[in-house]
Amino acid sequence: MSKGGEVVADAVREMLLGLADALDDAQSTLSETARTSDAGHGYEIPYLDFTFEVEFSEEESQGGRPSRIALLPKARRAGGDVERETRISSSISGRLATVPVQGGRPETLLDLTLLPVDGGRRQWRLGIEVSNLAGERLPGVPVALQVDAAMTEQMLDHRPSAEQRLGLLKTQRLITGVEGGAELIIDTAVLRGQRVVVQVEARGAIGRVILPGEAA
């Protein structure tokens, strides 16, 4: 991207972020008013149409100094000692709209179970069921798994080694079946008796289980 293109992209990004922040503040004010007013009515801002009138300005000062490139609100400004100036007027318009969480789909739920395999002391079956608040089981949903090192350190007072983080799970991605379930057999020999926290994530829902180093 050219220097001018980078300036324009950065300026437009800053304007949109500023507008989004202002819209968020306005919505927070409306929500707070609903909580504190006697009527208790709440209001939402469904969308906001916007138009920016801007000028792309490239100026070259006297004395051979480098040119200045900027995207500014459309307004006349004093030229000063500017030797050459190029202005391009433009209009940027669009709409900021609220989008329901998960596209309006019911919230995703995770149900995790952890059972020893055939009474063994080192193999565990991690069962995963993905559903939603509407009671529907969700097939074909990607499920991500990982050793949660930070949570293990916080809860169990030790941090898993690189060998444990990389060697414990034979896969870090599963797909739920027709009944919305998936499972993974985990061999805990690499843990050498230590416990770790395993994180499971699907469609924004996050669950965690503590994996024993060996069966009780």
What are the defining features of this structure?
216 residues, three-stranded antiparallel β-sheet, single chain, 10 strands, four-stranded antiparallel β-sheet, alpha+beta, elongated, 22% helix
Provide a brief overview of the structure.
This protein is α+β, with helices and mostly antiparallel strands and 216 residues long. Helix content is 22%, strand content 40%. The radius of gyration is 28 Å and the shape is elongated.
Strand content: 35-45%
Number of helices: 3
Categorize the overall geometry.
Answer: elongated
The poorly predicted ranges are none
**Order of H and E elements:** HEEEEEEHHEEEE
Q: Please outline the major beta sheet.
A: 4 strands, antiparallel
User: End-to-end distance, in Å?
Assistant: 60 Å
- How many beta-strand segments? 10
Taking all residues together, what is the mean pLDDT?
80
The residue fraction in helices comes out at 10-25%
Lateral arrangement of strands in the main beta sheet:
7-6-9-10
- Alpha carbon gyration radius: 28 Å
How would you describe the overall organization of this protein?
The protein has 216 residues and is α+β, with helices and mostly antiparallel strands. Helix content is 22%, strand content 40%. It contains three helices and ten strands. It has helices at residues 3-36, 149-156, 162-167, and strands spanning 47-61, 68-73, 82-97, 108-116, 123-132, 142-147, 173-175, 181-187, 196-202, 205-211. It has a four-stranded antiparallel beta sheet with strand order 7-6-9-10. The chain has a three-stranded antiparallel beta sheet with strand order 2-1-3, with helices on one face. Strand 1 and strand 2 (68-73) form a beta hairpin. The protein starts with a helix and ends in a 5-residue tail after the last strand.
